[in-house]
Amino acid sequence: MHCVVANWKMNLTSDEARIFCEEFLGRFVPEAGIEAGIAPPFTLLRQVSDLVGTKGVRVFGQNGHAEAKGAFTGEVSMPQLKDAGCSGVLLGHSERRQFFGETDAALAKKIMAAWQWDLLPLLCIGESLEQRDAGQTLAVLGQQLSILAETGPGPLWVAYEPVWAIGTGRRAEAPQVREAHAFIRAEMLRHGADTDVPILYGGSVTPESFPELLAIPEVAGGLVGGASLDPLKFAELIKQAG
Ligand code: PGA
Asked: What would the pLDDT profile of 133-173 be if each residue is shown by its tens digit?
């Protein structure tokens, strides 16, 4: 199975999202073995899920709180994501870790909360440039995945996103992606995960770079930021994964 997920981050208004969905659906052809998903900002979840959800496109939250409800101003819970039409949730994106203090301990709780509400977690992991330069890439990935010892196995997608490749136009080279994905698979198996958990690559994916990435063993698709804001490029990426 191949998966292509658009991460819109903090972009688009409702008018822009409507135009995106119309243009995207004009090109999108659902195919067996391909999972397409969109992670819009919270304000657009209901609208996007009404527009594309019925066409077999998954809708993901970009984050979710571990508690079901309560006094957590500014947060959105897993049942609220579910209620807005989501079937999954991005967790641990590097921007959440970097700018909002997301910790591995919090992420373990969020994964279990997602499962409780029947949402598919898409766990993002990846090393910073300093960590790569210091030869710590695999240790960092191993640490980020160690939360699976706490959560136990369950439905999961993982995205390997080297922080230095996100939004920079600087994609990781094929040998770097191959090494990281093989390591992630081995770690996941060690933690008791199913053999078929998809491991996506993310970081400056474009229609120009995607075919080479898809040819790498263990790359089951892409988590796409910048290029996914163009409906034609996003539809093209899904076609390439077919
Ligand atoms: P990018 O973002 O494709 O713009 O590098 C990827 C991501 O942050 O998921």
From this structure: 999 999 999 999 999 999 999 999 999 999 999 988 888 99
Strands (E) across 33-87 are located at 34-39, 57-61
**CA 56 to CA 226: how far, in whole Å?**
22
Number of domains the chain is built from: 1
pLDDT of 141 = 98
At 216, is the secondary structure helix, strand, or coil? coil
CB–CB of 23/232 below 8 Å?
yes
What is the residue range of 119's domain?
Answer: 2-240
Out of 93, 95, 127, 187, the active site residue is 93
Would you state the pLDDT for residue 169? Answer: 85
Q: Which CATH number covers residue 21? A: 3.20.20.70
Which tens digits make up the pLDDT trace of 87-105? 999 999 999 999 999 999 9
Q: In this structure, how many other beta carbons lie within 10 angstroms of the beta carbon of residue 208? A: 10
Catalytic residue, chosen from 35, 95, 161, 187, is 161
- Ligand 1 centre from 205 Cα, in Å? 7
CA of 166 to the centre of ligand 1 (A): 5
